Amino acid sequence: MQNNQEISLNSRHGWLGWWPRTGIKSIFDPENARVFEFLVEQRKKIVDHSSVLDAGAGKQPYKRIFDGLNYESTDMPGGFYTKKHDFECELHDIPKPNDHYDVVLLTFVLEHVPDPQATLSEIYRVLKPNGKLLIYVPLNGPLHGEPWHFFQFTHYGLNQLALNTGFHINEIEKVGGAFWFIGKRLPIAFSQLLKQYDPFRAKKRGQNIVFSILISFLLLPTWFIFYLPAAYIIRPFFYWLDHLDRQKILTTGYTTVFVKNMDK
User: Fold this and answer.
1) What stretches of 81-211 adopt beta strand conformation (E)?
2) Pair 169, 158: CB distance under 8 Å
3) Dist CA 104 CA 155 (whole Å)
């Protein structure tokens, strides 16, 4: 098994500054803010009119970043969203010729494909020589998009996938640490607890409506005692506290740039 490509993590670890450029929005959701800033940074390095494929684009949240480029989007047939795309496909079988795109985006997607190596190999095929693959993958996050949530990733796993598919890792960075992770997930834990007993969804879930009403009533104080402080006091405070976590072993995930290595 190959494992000889050096991993050099950016020591910034996703830090957006004491007051982020996008302000309070970033402080309340630094994970998504860091992904957005990562793509903005990378856009500045891309020559105008380059061809870009947003793979697994969903609602195309990053399309406006790539104004001035030949932007296309794709998603799986019958995907999660109704947004119209240039074409639909499985990412291990992209209906484009070899050496077609200058840049491919793969954000919050690789965890949802059943064979990440096959997907990366296919993206390698459609990228031009020295083309870039811009990735964000989660390491610590809730189950989502079920039943199409297959993997979580470490930088060691990304390194191995790059080696196996011929890519070179140009840069890789952790996105925050324990406090960004807890600050985002703690409010979700309390909100999900209440949602599990939502009387308006009881019939759909096969729950007894009276029981759901009773449990919801008993749990209602947690909304005020736990959820609101977690969401509006702890979460923003943890944005700044995360800067003290130097190792970031409980990171939310990774941004990384894979470059097509022509020595494959």
Assistant:
1) 87-88, 101-107, 127-138, 167-174
2) yes
3) 19
Domain ranges of the chain: 24-177+245-260, 181-240
The model's pTM: 0.92
**Closest-CA residue to 36 (of 25, 45, 49, 46):** 25
CATH 1.10.3720.10 for domain 24-177+245-260, yes or no, is no
Treating both helix axes as pointing N-terminal to C-terminal, what angle do 30-43 and 178-195 enclose, rounded to 10 degrees? 120
| Spatial separation of the C-alpha atoms in residues 241 and 22, rounded to whole Å | 19
Taking the C-alpha atoms of residue 105 and residue 241, their distance in angstroms, rounded to an integer, is: 31
Note the pLDDT tens digit of each residue in 14-53: 999 999 999 999 999 999 999 999 999 999 999 999 999 9
- Given a contact cutoff of 8 angstroms between Cβ atoms, the answer to whether 186 and 241 are in contact is no
* N-to-C CA span, the chain: 16
Q: Is the separation of the CB atoms in 192 and 231 below 8 Å? A: no
Neighbour-count burial for 116-125, b at 16+ CB within 10 Å, e otherwise? beebbbbbbb
Q: Are 12 and 37 in contact (CB under 8 A)?
A: no
- Amino acid, res. 155: H
